[in-house]
Amino acid sequence: MVDLLQVYADRPDPRSVAVVGNQPLAPDSARAEAIDSCDLVIRVNGFVCDEPGAPPTVGAKTHAVVFNRALRATKFVFANYRSRLYLMVEPGRLHWEPENIPGWWPADLGFVPVSNREVTLPLSEAMGLASREEAAWATTGTMAAWIARTSFPDAELVLSGFSFVDDPQQTSWEHAAGDSCIVGPEHRIALEGALLQSWLDAGSARLLR
Prior knowledge:
This protein is of the alpha/beta class. Helices cover 25% and strands 16% of the residues.
C-alpha cells in the first residue's frame, strides 16, 4: 500500500501528507492552500472539493480516496478516478460484513482492500479497542489518518475536517456534502479524538480547523 501511495503522490517520498475528513468547514484560503500544497492528499468517503469560482475551503487536490461500503458518493468521488488510488476499508469483515463489491461501483474502476491485520487491528490496539472480540473500530477518517501516519512517519501530517477532536461526545454529525447521520454504534470517537490529539500534542501532526 505504501508503494501505491508513493506512485500516486506528487513525489515518491512525500514530505507532507494531508488527510481531509468530512466536517463542514467555513471558507479559509490559507487552509485550502495548505492542503493543496501537500505532496499527498487523502480524502475520505463522500468528500467535497473546492470548485472554480467558489470560496477556497478544503482545496481540490486528491491523490487517494479511503472509503467504506456505506459510502454516500458525491460528484467529487469519481471525478478523474483514473488518476487516483482508491483504498477500501472493511473492518466489518472481522464480524459480519459481506465481501460483495457495492453495486454502484464503476465497472472499470479497481480498488485496493485495506488489510485488517495491517491497519484495522493495530489502530484498534492503539486506541484500546478489542476489535476481534467486539464489533467496534475506528471511523474511516481515522483509518485514513493512521494510514498516512504509519506509511510516512517522517512526513509532515496535516489533518482537517475531524470534528471529534473538538467534540468527542457528539452522537450525530453533519457532512460537508450536506447530509447528516448518527455516529455508528461501532465507533468510539472519544478514543479516536484522544489519539489524534496525542499526535497534535506531540507535534507530529497539525489540525487545520
